[in-house]
Amino acid sequence: MKMRVASIFALAGYSLLIVAPLYLALDRLVWVAGFDPYAWINSLNENYITQGVIGFTFLQAALSTLFTLIIGIPIAWQLGRHKWPLQSFVKSILTMPFVMPSIVAAMGFLHIIGPAGLNIRVDESTWFTTLIIAHAWFNMALVIRFCEPVLSTLDPNLEQQMRLLPAGRTKFGRFRNLWAPLLMPSVAAAACMTFIFSFTSFALVKWITLGDNTLESVMASVGSSAGIKDYMISRNEIILGASLIQFTILLAALWIMSWLQQRRQSLLPQASEAIVKSANRKGWLIIGPGLLFALSPLIAVLWASFRVRHTDSTGTTYTWETSGWEFAFAGTNSLPSGWDALANSLGYAGLTLIIALPLGWVLAQTILDVEKQRPRLARLLDILTMLPFAASSVMIGLGVMLGMIRIDAEFFYSFWPTPVFAHIMITTPFVVRIMLPALRSISPEYDECARTLGIVAWRRFFFIKLPLLWGSILIAGIFTLAMSLGEFGASWVVTRNSDWTTLPIMIDSLRSIPYNTTYTAPAACAISSVLMIITLFLFTWAEKFRPARDGGMF
Amino acid sequence: MKKTALFLGIIILNLSISGCLSEEIDGDTVETPEQYEWVDDGELVIVTYDVYGLTDEMISQFENESGYEVSMLKLDDAGSVLDHLLQHKGLQIADLAIGLDNTYLQTAIDNNVFWEHTAVLNNISESALLPYNGPFAAPFDQGYMCLNYDTSIVDGENYTVPESLWDLTNEEWKGKVAIPSPETSSPGRAFMTATTDYFSHDDDNQTEWTDWWSAMSENEVIITTGWSEAYETHYTGGYGEWTDGYVGDAHIVVSYCHSPGVESWYNENWTKSAALDLPRSAFHQVEYASAIEGGNLGAASAFIEYLLSHEVNSKMPIENSMYSVLEGVDLPEENGYRYHSIIPQQTAMVNSTTIANSMETWLEQWNTAMVDA
Amino acid sequence: MLECKELSKSFEKELFTGFNLELKPGEIIAITGPSGCGKTTLLRAICGLETLDSGTINLDHVDITNVPAEERGIGLIFQSPVLFPHLSVQGNLLLGDENGDISTALEEVGLSGFEKRRVESLSGGEGQRVSLARALLAKPKVLLLDEPFSSLDEDLSEKLVQDVRSILKKSDCPAILVTHNKKIAGDFADSVISLSN
Questions:
Q1: C44 CA to chain A: closest CA distance, Å?
Q2: For residue C175, is it within any domain?
Q3: Closest Cα of chain A to C120: distance in Å?
Q4: DSSP secondary structure letter of residue C164
């Protein structure tokens, strides 16, 4: 009974939180641009700044997905089928890029290809390739997380049986008749997720490919003039057109995703403790470069934060200095200090955690509760909780910004926690994704058994349910913190009209300092390093609590 | 499946309905701007973009002298400042806007986002008051936008120095010219505005300014979001080659006529960049400070007075790489600053009202010209 | 002391109708029947984990039909032992009675010295013994057993059947066992009820 009240509250709160800002934003944009979806989409082709954006967005997302699979599947295979020294540590490093803030990745790749690195950035044709590689770096964790459990827990009897059947005598036969059908849902699900994340890429596109835009980055760049009556109407049309396309594509992807996820659950083979994995020397040819790939942007960021450029008549030299760090943390009238940004970021992340974690938990419990009796409603709720993925963070940012202007701008602009609204919208879906399989994995017998022992509800919650879920709660919590700390798109839209600078926004502003300062790069990298180290710390901490075999997505 | 369709249908239906509804509701509230009495809260919030002249020392000196507490809201560019003012009209977020130039100012004034400031100003040069001379904005710096070229490459041998804008549509300049977009940057707007004047005064009656832009678009002109991307990332003649992210594929760029002077000032009297003095291709740009409606008028006016004091404004060439607006203050001679800077013989003549009235049309025409090419 | 009157329940098909039973203090009854005949559902209904379509349950002359499971004072041993993996054997037993005498309880089920063991390290039989000890620590007025011996091999289950019976008799705890195995039913209970379709 109480659970039902909590469910209704959570659902109502969530809907209000997610739907209200998006509704207010769209409403405002439609008010300016008029209701004409055809004109919205057409405006993308009619405007010089958005010409070719649709094509570019699809192309880069498709290629990124393909490339992610190409490098992700061999790594997942090696991890799943063979034995590695420090297995879980190796896996942690290979999956860590996924939690890294995209702006940190952007800084890392900029420095790898920049003048102090490979020095190939001067050739514009390398930008696109760099973007694809950066997306693959970011998303290969998804392929590993989705495919590795299938590979590592498959009952060896299945493979042995297959060897004895005519269809499985050859390697190709086993691949076609055993591995491919088993892995397909997982690979497809990972591809779906990668496509979604690449499709809505913002920070990487903003910094790596200067001339080209995704729908997401276009929305961000024209967003500042949105929602003003009789002013720059085409900009409003662009935003509406871009979000309409994004929403449709992403919703379709999420629908497929949700369907694949169910197939994946049913295909996930039983865990078998009998598996004896062999070592594989040749596999180092895959795992070794994989580890290097995963780590290099991070090393580049840390390295570049201490390298300060000096230019004089004799040419350019780089020296080891800490002055970039000093510059980043000094603060000026026009630029907050690194400390302020750190305090804001930590504050927002903490607040987001306090709200998003219980909210996501209750939502996950609600989905689970209605799943048995009303599977269709459960599916609908499932999609609803993934809606923010489809809306994309820039759209969420615009929603919060236009929403607060509509409701009470004076209040919200003086209300420090305002950006938290956007962070909650972005992190709650992740909490639901993590908590749902965790809740599902708890057998109802535990609760029933406790009841027959005469244990009352609150004690059952604190002494049985909470400890059983503890690992997943910590992962969800840490993930929420990491996501909030690294959030870029929405914060970029919301906080640029305020002085609530967060770490990712500060990296962006530092790197945007034009003019002849030598600190632009090292200072941006110094703040990136801070963000990276916090994220790494959170990630390694979370890995300790990860259940051995979670069916979860992240 | 059906439920989702229904769900989506409801969302879309809602949008269409609310689109009509809110038009009525909002229509009323937006049309009648509320009036505020200004209150001195002891604070001054400045909304601006990267205006280098607003240094820390300068701000702290103002704080010490006036007792106001200053905070700054930094946006990407002048366009974002205007967007901010329009979007947050009457919301009393900021008190003073710094950095709108004469291509943006009139639009802001027409939208009633400013109050008349009460600063007492002396010794402002006539030229600075030429584009706008009224109570809603005070000029604080100025300069001339024009094409800059890399003399080490555009030396008459490898590349010929252009003698008209049409020369830039020749094959040899394919993909070698960088211009900031008029949609997103004020130097871009300024240069586009100049082209409207340039091509209405050329000998050719057959072609319009938009034809030139179409030809440029076909000639693969590099259009960038802002000035710094054009100058630092693409231009070979400036300091960009020493910065990270340098690409260096353009030998001609839209910048200031005194940019070579700034290069020289920072490089001990050496530069390979030069300004191209084509009649009517240069635009006289003036940047303004304005008191925002509903803000702290006293503090805003005090800051404007401070910004235009001889002590602060005469430092504009050094602190802000722009000309001062004061009578008798020129660029310094040291390091060839003044020597390498030019004052164009004949700038484009377009008055502020024309700019304000035509800008949206021009941008649409520009857009069409670029897209249809 | 436990009185079931006209209990009926159907879910997709009719599981049981008009079921009556009277359990006297200290008595052990076994209910047998083929699998899928609703034995488990019947037990779960008696301890309050399932709702009934109709009928009343009285315990010590008090109507407990609508009392929640945790307040009924009826214990249940599940088919396979339900032990909380985040707690040690001792922690699991303390859930039965916070101030209970753990070592005596373990001694009674023949598992002396098992206090600190992790539950994953227990065999099936040991697990059921811990479940039993825990259920008895909660001092149930009636203990219900849902095929607790079915997952064990024959020798072990025979031994456990005897042990559990004597423990129950010693603590004078009335019990109902459901099983599909007539031999176990006969060995364990004072009387056997056969539930047919």
A1: 9
A2: yes
A3: 14
A4: H
Of all residues in chain B, the percent with pLDDT exceeding 90 is 59
CATH (residue range A36-305): 1.10.3720.10
B279-291 in b/e burial notation, b at 16+ Cβ within 10 A? ebbbbbbbbbbbb
Terminal Cα-to-Cα distance of chain C (whole angstroms)? 27
Q: Which pLDDT score, from 0 to 100, does residue B4 have?
A: 44
Q: Which of A397-401, B11-15, C153-157 has the highest mean pLDDT?
A: A397-401
Question: What is the identity of the amino acid at C63?
Answer: D
Q: Which of residues 4-63 of B touch A (CB under 8 A)?
A: 4, 7-8, 14-16, 18-20, 22-23, 26, 30, 50, 52, 54-56, 59-60
Run of H or E including C18: strand C13-23
Return the CATH number at C165.
Answer: 3.40.50.300
What's the CA angle centered on B155, arms B154 and B159, to 5 degrees? 50
Class of CATH domain B43-142+285-335: alpha beta
CA dihedral A21, A26, A28, A34 (to 10 degrees): -170
| A159 pLDDT tier (thresholds 50, 70, 90) | confident
How distant, in Å, are the alpha carbons of A384, B126, B213 from that of B351? 54, 15, 22
Share of chain C above pLDDT 70, in %: 99
* Over residues B179-195, mean pLDDT: 92
Q: Which two tokens stand for residue A351?
A: 């607040």
Residue A446 touches chain C, beta carbons under 8 Å: yes
Q: How far apart are CA A183 and CA A154, in angstroms?
A: 11
Looking at residue B250, the DSSP 8-state letter turns out to be B
For tokens 């690195």, name the residue.
A117
Is residue A90 within 8 Å of residue A287, measured between CB atoms?
A: yes
Can you spell out the DSSP letters for B45-71? EEEES--TTS-HHHHHHHHHHH-PEEE
- Report which of B255, B213, B184, B188 is spatially closest to residue A49, judged by C-alpha positions: B184
Pairing state between β A278-279 and B177-180? unpaired
Domain B144-284+340-372 in the same topology as domain B43-142+285-335: yes
Interval C36-65 mean pLDDT: 89
Asked whether A107 and A488 are in contact (CB, 8 A), the reply is no
Confidence at residue B156, expressed as pLDDT on a 0 to 100 scale: 83
CA atoms of A501 and C72, how far apart (whole Å):
58
Residue B338 carries which DSSP code?
T
Check CB contact under 8 Å for C49 and A451: yes
User: What pLDDT band is residue B14 in, cutting at 50, 70 and 90?
Assistant: very low
Judged by DSSP in three states, B184 sits in coil
Q: What is the pLDDT of residues C58-79, one digit of tens each?
A: 999 899 988 888 888 899 998 8
Cβ within 8 Å, pair B371-A121: no
Residue among A470, A435, A463, A469 at smallest CA distance from A449 = A463
Which CATH homologous superfamily contains domain B144-284+340-372?
Answer: Periplasmic binding protein-like II (3.40.190.10)
Q: Chain B interface, mutation test: which of A48, A225, A380, A398, most B Cβ atoms within 10 Å? A: A48
A448 vs C49, C74, C87: nearest CB: C49
Q: How many residues are present in chain C? A: 197
Which chains, if any, share at least 3 CB pairs under 8 A with chain A? B, C
Cα–Cα distance between C174 and C27 in angstroms, integer? 5
Between the alpha carbon of residue A537 and those of residues A300, A348, A546, the distances in Å are: 18, 18, 15
- Taken in order B169, B170, B171, B175, is the CA torsion positive or negative? negative
C158 C-beta neighbours (distance < 10 Å), count: 15
In chain C, the number of structural domains is 1
In angstroms, the first-to-last Cα distance of chain A is 31
Token representation of residue B83: 């967007």
Domain boundaries, chain A: 36-305
